[in-house]
Predict the structure.
Amino acid sequence: MTLTTEDKKAGMQAAFAQAQLAADQGEIPIGAVVVDQTGQIIGRGYNRRELDQDATEHAEMIAIRQACQHLGLWRLLDCTLFVTLEPCPMCAGACINARLGTVAYAAFDPKAGACGSVVDLLAEPKFNHHPQVIRGLYQPEAKDMLKKFFQAVRAGKIQKPSQNRSDKLQ
């Protein structure tokens, strides 16, 4: 599937909207959407690690899971994942396993990025599937969103959801 400029813009705007939902709840603002070949969003997700206390609740994982459920298939060959931050190794692996056609991300992740920054799992020749990758799509906006979030956290204006939990184990 060839993505037009408008397709890319719409996909990333939807991912940014998901990232804002995360930020509004004190989560790191990372959002993702899966779009099918007609341009319809079939999966949405935002970072929920702190909210759910689950290391696997990344935006990409949630969006991919929802897209598979929507289609009733685990193969997302003609679909595109739009995400505001470069996928980590777990999420890059999910992109490969789901056979996503394209992965488009905004900000590079120099600490955990697995699509070129630290490693490039999507280009690993030993894997049996290699999604097309679009890197740095709307990167300035994504970097700005992350920067403002972490500034607010450091200033004490945002408290992580896990800091509010009364049911923590002692």
Notes: The chain has a mean pLDDT of 94.
